[in-house]
Amino acid sequence: MSTVLNNFENWKKFLGDRVAAAKRLGMDEQAMTKLAYEIGEYLDQRVDPKNEEQRVLKELWDAGDEAERKTMAHLMIKLAEQNS
């Protein structure tokens, strides 16, 4: 997992693969966004960013309110879809 976190391109590919798998299992966009939001909250509280891109995402997450964070989570799903 550490190689996934250290390189942003690997991170996007990893997320893309997980989003594709969730879709194959029948998970809808709203459920994926909710899960992405929960994961974002977890990462924000417990994981130190491993690269500049992750640090920017953390700063944006920290600056946003709940609605903005949910929007970010949805956008991360869309970004991941482009990288699956």
Q: Bin the strand percentage.
A: under 5%
Class from secondary-structure proportions: mainly alpha
Sheet with the most strands?
none
Low-confidence stretches: none
Shape: globular
The level of helicity is over 70%
- How large is the count of helical segments? 5
CATH topology: Cytochrome Bc1 Complex, Chain D, domain 2
Number of domains: 1
Q: What is the strand tally?
A: 0
Task: Report the mean per-residue pLDDT as an integer.
Answer: 90
**What's the CATH class, please?**
Mainly Alpha
Tell me what the CATH architecture is: Orthogonal Bundle
Spatial gap, N to C terminus: 17 Å
Summarize the helix and strand pattern as letters. HHHHH
C-alpha Rg (nearest Å): 12 Å
Organism: Cohnella pontilimi
Pfam families: DUF3243 (PF11588)
Protein name: DUF3243 domain-containing protein
